[in-house]
Amino acid sequence: MDNRISSKLLGLIVLVFGIASCDQRTEAEKIVDAAIEAHGGEAYLDAKIDFDFRNFHYSIYKSPNGFEYSREFTDSTGNVKDVLNNSGFLRTVNGVKIDTLPEERIGAFSRSVNSVAYFAFLPYGLNDAAAIKTLLGESEIKGKKYDVIKVTFQQEGGGDHFEDQFLYWFGKEDHLMDYMAYLYYTDGGGVRWREVSGIQEVGGIRFQNYLNLKPEDKNTPLDMMEELYVSGKLEKLSEINLENIQVVPIPKD
């Protein structure tokens, strides 16, 4: 066979298999892919993100192969730095490693750091290997149409919060995440609704502030939160505002 024909045939086979592989992604996965692209896409990769949230300074790095989240603050003991990465959790005070933390405190600090990083990075983290995405259908809020995606997590790789459940509303036209709701079990559990209250675009990434709302009954089913929001029956609990955001690209090797 002519080598040129052989090369063309091989290229065609690769292309066909590539298309088939893309088509194997579920509709929910395709919607999340589009949302990640709309919020920043490749700008998330190989970038360190710094911001202030309440009384803490956070530095977040996340790639397909690893992550490192840190927060710093000052209290009566001095400068405290918590670091959570693929190797585990580490706390230092004035640069000195603390080896005497009980396991429950390590777990609590790790969950706190991870939670802030998770929400700040949305929707990027929704393609983590442990995330299970399901398209629930379409919805309309304030005249805008949305795809509603439910996200749960496998126990293996899903972290301490793998039992939590999340709903996301992605605009059908612009693919932006305007609302989310979630069910959590830590600290007595409950449900929350978040709506976007402000937007900052830094380094090609869309960062969103939120109003954090809750129902009167903490045992409200997660799938009722949209109805309660639309009918004005949710109470404002807090505001989630990121400040002094910086995005620093990390040079590739």
UniProtKB/TrEMBL annotation:
PROSITE patterns recorded: PROKAR_LIPOPROTEIN
InterPro entries per the UniProt record, alphabetical: DUF6503
Name the record gives this protein: Deoxyribose-phosphate aldolase
